[in-house]
Amino acid sequence: MLAGVRERCNAIEECYELMLGYAAQGLPGDQGSQSGGQVREFLRRAVEALSGLAAAYSEAVKQAGLQPPEPYQAFLTVLERDAKDALAAMGLVLAQPSISSQLVDNLNASIHLRALLTDLFLIDEILRPQPVSANPAATS
Question: Is residue 133 part of a domain?
């Protein structure tokens, strides 16, 4: 389950990285350029990865046995909301007949996309195996 979650995360992060480069190109639209076709493909992959993301993370948290469950469930509610918001913004961009660099730059700057990326970085770090402290009381 964790590998599937990481694959979703990678697809979203790769899309964002490609969009940063695309935004910098100053293209008026995506027709006729290789990177234009790529931006649509990467956006589609990110949209697919976002669908059901919170449920996939919820299952990964359960499988990892993270306790107590309440803080994780509360955060997953935030993740689900941020994923839905980012999906709406990405869907709007994909619905356009032409995707300009400026449009992608505006999507990159969207608070919805940035919130989602921050959520992913946070939960990904939490789900990584953490070294166990030799003296847990020393960190308190």
Answer: no
